Amino acid sequence: QLGLVESGGGSVQPGGSLTLSCAASGSPLEYFYFAWFRRTPGAGRDGVACISIDGRERSYGLFVKGRFTISRDDAKKTVYLQMDNLKPEDTGTYYCAADRAFCWGTTEWGQGTQVTVSS
User: Fold this and answer.
1) 73 Cβ partners below 8 Å, 6+ apart?
2) Measured distance CA(88)–CA(95) in Å, rounded
């Protein structure tokens, strides 16, 4: 079992950047895929990014369009989401998820961190 705690959310102007962190506790990270999801106002849940167990493969939602980067540091037990060129439509709650079998799997969830993009 894995505990996940997100941080790094906040308010930023359009075009700005934020780095989200997902701190994991419990089992070693090397057994898990990780993903970021979000819930935005008026929309359902979107898959933002996921990263493979070895960190070599990454997948992103179509709306990301090169603006975000997912990474992992197993030694620090932390997964990151670097978000650049943020847009108002990126406003929402961002969640970290982990799974032993699938990149977009959601066996474990964090509590979420709020991102607000507004001028």
Assistant:
1) 79, 80
2) 18
What is the reported pLDDT for 44? 81
**37 Cβ neighbours under 8 A, 6+ residues apart:** 45, 46, 47, 48, 94, 95, 97, 106
Element (H, E) at 3: strand 2-7
Do the beta carbons of residue 61 and residue 46 sit within 8 Å? yes
13 and 34 in contact (C-beta within 8 Å)?
no
Q: Provide CB contacts within 8 A for 28, sequence distance 6+.
A: 74
State the Cα–Cα distance between residues 3 and 24, nearest whole angstrom: 5
Residue 28 confidence (pLDDT): 87
Q: Give the percent of the chain with pLDDT over 70.
A: 100
Q: Tell me how far apart the alpha carbons of residues 26 and 45 are, in angstroms, rounded to a whole number.
A: 26
